[in-house]
Design goal:
Strand content: over 45%
Distance between the termini: 76 Å
Radius of gyration: 22 Å
Number of helices: 3
Number of strands: 24
Shape: globular
């Protein structure tokens, strides 16, 4: 007869085994989307900001989220974890962000990427549970030309049936270079078959307008995808001088909805597409408010592109109608430059309305109040 100690050891081993198996499965099949942006620092340093979205609400805000592998393009890599910044319990997903500095041994252009497993399983067209890639072409060294940055929404609701839904993406370039949008290929996204050829021509315009129809989406069945179907659309944003690219992996959700979508109160909210100046070392704030004409409906506001250190008061998500909140941020000199932000107001019926603006952080030098951005 086995001793109690031996049985205890066996149970401990089994517990460890199943715990590891469970955690592996959780990490392995929850990726929903994300983006990378980067800035040149002194010498050959590059500061990466990696924002990713994941299915589930396992981790609280401020805690360490899921792990992924980062490859820097110089033969080095490491496992990274983001900090949870936003949770949407209604839609069962969360967002996590990490800011990390990489010092390259020499100046030049590098292809850096997040490359890990796995996407959520319930994706069509053979894309479920596949690996995911977020690839960015990066410049290191003095006088580098920086890539654009993107306010990548976590998901966009689209109408079912033979109906077209359009959504304007929001990206800016720190040097003011024109930007071009395109659908990422297999190497840039980890999706096979190749999304750049699977998505119909005209799905994504060069100016960033996504227009989709569930009957013509990749792998669509007869009559198109039905309510609840998720499908990814990976994109690439490039500046027009070819010196940098960033990724954006966005989830589309087919959603059967009725009623009137929310509206933004532009007597309070900045005009769509507007630019707001903030100053390094000075507290700034932006008020926003969304309303819904349908009696009894409530609204959630889902933000993307919010810079590190900025907070909403009251904190989001803040389910209410009308839904009013204030973005508060005191940027530092290191934040100088452009920060695109997109807000999606979604009511409890699933109807969405988006608005976008860009915060430009200026630095001012004494004794003359001369203000400049990062470039």
């Amino acid at each position: 007869m086995e001793s109690k100690l031996t049985l205890f050891k066996k149970w401990k081993i089994l517990f460890f085994f199943f715990t590891m198996l469970c955690c592996y499965e959780v990490d392995a099949s929850h990726f929903r989307g994300g983006t990378i942006s980067w800035d040149c620092l002194s010498g050959n340093q590059v500061e990466y900001t990696i924002t990713t979205q994941w299915a589930g609400t396992l981790y609280p805000v401020g805690s360490q989220g899921y792990a992924y592998s980062m490859y820097y393009g110089d033969g080095t890599s490491e496992t990274l974890y983001g900090t949870v910044t936003f949770i949407n319990t209604t839609e069962n997903w969360f967002s996590q962000t990490l800011v990390i500095t990489k010092t390259y041994s020499s100046p030049g252009q590098y292809t850096a990427e997040v490359n890990s497993c796995c996407r959520i399983g319930a994706l069509p067209n053979g894309w479920g549970s596949s690996s995911f890639v977020l690839r960015s072409v990066v410049n290191a060294g003095a006088g580098c030309n920086e890539a654009p940055s993107l306010a990548s929404p976590a998901f966009i609701n689209v109408s079912p049936g033979n109906n077209q839904t359009c959504f304007q993406l929001n990206a800016v370039d720190p040097e003011g270079d024109p930007v071009t949008f395109s659908i990422a290929n297999s190497a840039e996204s980890g999706l096979f078959p190749d999304p750049s050829t699977e998505w119909p021509v005209g799905t994504l315009s060069a100016s960033g307008l996504i227009c989709v129809n569930p009957t013509t989406m990749p792998g669509a069945p007869s009559g198109g995808y039905v309510n609840g179907q998720l499908i990814p659309i990976p994109i690439k944003v490039s500046d027009n001088n070819g010196n940098g690219t960033i990724p954006g992996d966005i989830m589309l959700k087919v959603s059967t909805v009725t009623g009137v979508p929310p509206t933004w109160d532009y007597t309070i909210t900045p005009a769509d597409g507007s630019t707001i100046n903030f100053f390094a070392g000075v507290a700034g704030s932006i008020n926003v408010e969304a309303e819904d004409a349908d009696a009894g409906n409530t609204i959630d506001i889902n933000p993307s592109g919010v810079p590190g250190g900025a907070i909403f008061t009251p904190a989001l998500p803040n389910t209410s109608s009308p839904n009013a909140t204030t973005l508060n941020w005191t940027p530092t000199a290191a934040d100088a430059g452009s920060h695109p932000i997109t807000l999606i107001a979604q009511d409890n019926a699933g109807l969405q309305t988006s608005t976008s603006f860009t915060i430009v952080v200026l630095t001012c030098s004494a004794p003359v109040a001369t203000c400049t951005n990062a470039t």
